[in-house]
Amino acid sequence: MSSSFQAPKGVSEYVPPRADLFYAIREAFAEQARLAGYGYLELAVFEDTNLFRRGVGESTDVVSKEMYTFEDRGGRSLTLRPEFTATVLRSVLENNLHKQGALPVKVWTSGPAFRAERPQQGRYRQFYQLDLEAIGSEDPQVDAETIAIAANWYRSLGLTRVRLLLNSLGCRECRPAYRALLQDFLRRLDLDEATRARIEINPLRVLDDKRPRVREQLAGAPLMADHLCAACKDHHDRVRGLLADLGIGWEDTPTLVRGLDYYTRTTYEFDHPMLGAQSGIGGGGRYDGLSEDIGGPPLPGIGFGLGLDRTVLALEAEGAAFAAKPRCEVFGVPLGDAAERAMFALVAELRGAGVAADMAFGGKRLKGAMKDADRSGARYAVILGERDISDGVAQVKDLTEGEQTAVPLADITPTLKERLSR
After folding, report:
1. Three-state DSSP state, 221
2. Are 105 and 154 in contact (CB under 8 A)?
């Protein structure tokens, strides 16, 4: 009988074997980050609510509609993190990482984030992200580096349908004039009251509206790309040139603004067309004013958040060849009390040698234990009975080919390591 309790609605959970894929793609990202010199952070899951109000933006849907906010026993307003960048920057500033060496500070983290959204495929209330940030440099090479890390990760997973959408949102010098121009255009459209209110607070976010009726009216909207100052245009051209040097393709997407207020200059999104409405599988951009917004010193930065949930869905949609490392490579089948003790020691020896090994427990007979071996996904079974112990051997069975050979007990570990390496 199963429990009467269920996971809360909209929570994304993973159990084997799907969880093995989830873990493996996270580890593949960790390797990409390590190769590029990014250190790992383990961060708080909840923060002072004002961090997100000031950092993410009061006008965003994230802050105005989607945050899980609660009051603790001391009367403080706390919020489960809806995204990572503000939390990462808070930690960097609080721990003075920007004062401890050459800039940029290069860090990454991962874990769950929380938004009170209507659950659907690829959109959850508890979801998982990989986050990477480079804080303290305006160099376009840093922009290109972050994009390349994500692109290389997707490529390493075997995904072939990922598209990179790229834009520039200008800076605090050139964006005000464009903002006023966009507001003049938007005020003339037939829009609902909520969207009209957004025009006055953050008109760029209207460009992110996905409703067909609104998108039709936005066809002639002025674009930031046509109003960049000379410095922003040069920055954007250099980012694109660096991506071209690395062989990373992109699509110029002048209406791309993303959903958070802190973005400036380089803004990008990774899109997977096989995922339908929730096709954005990751994205990021530059946030050169965010440090000041949360009370810190002027400190430019750029980073991204990649959706682990949607990446799993993309791998499944493509049928990509990427596979998790097997949880079990060798499965022990002991027959009898003496064999159980000897097998227990042998399994420990195999694990110590770096071989994923498991065994049948509970004194099972041969037939039941071999069923366990098949279910484990192991390539080899090691069968050990009383007579085998007397002879100083064990029977090694290839569970794919069906071949079985006797191997001296002293040679089991090196023999299996050699066979598994083929």
Report:
1. coil
2. no
Using CA atoms, how far residue 315 sits from 22, 158, 162, 200, 329, in Å, is 10, 8, 11, 41, 24
Q: What is the Cα–Cα distance from 311 to 32, expressed in whole angstroms? A: 16
Q: Is the pTM here over 0.85, yes or no?
A: yes
Q: Residue 195 and residue 148: Cα distance in Å, rounded?
A: 35
Measure the CA angle with vertex 261, ends 96 and 270; round to 5°.
90
Q: Which amino acid is at 365?
A: R
Q: Dig out the tokens for 115 from the structure.
A: 């938004």
Which contiguous run of DSSP H or E holds residue 166? strand 163-168
Per residue in 156-194, pLDDT tens?
999 999 999 999 999 989 989 999 999 999 999 999 998
Pairing type for strands 251-252 and 264-271 reads unpaired
Instruction: Tell me the backbone φ, ψ of residue 385, rounded to 5 degrees.
Output: -115, 180
Distance, CA of 80 to CA of 353 (rounded, Å)? 41
Instruction: From 202, 256, 195, select the one nearest 58 (Cα to Cα).
Output: 202
Task: Identify whether the C-beta of residue 109 lies closer than 8 Å to the C-beta of residue 43.
Answer: yes
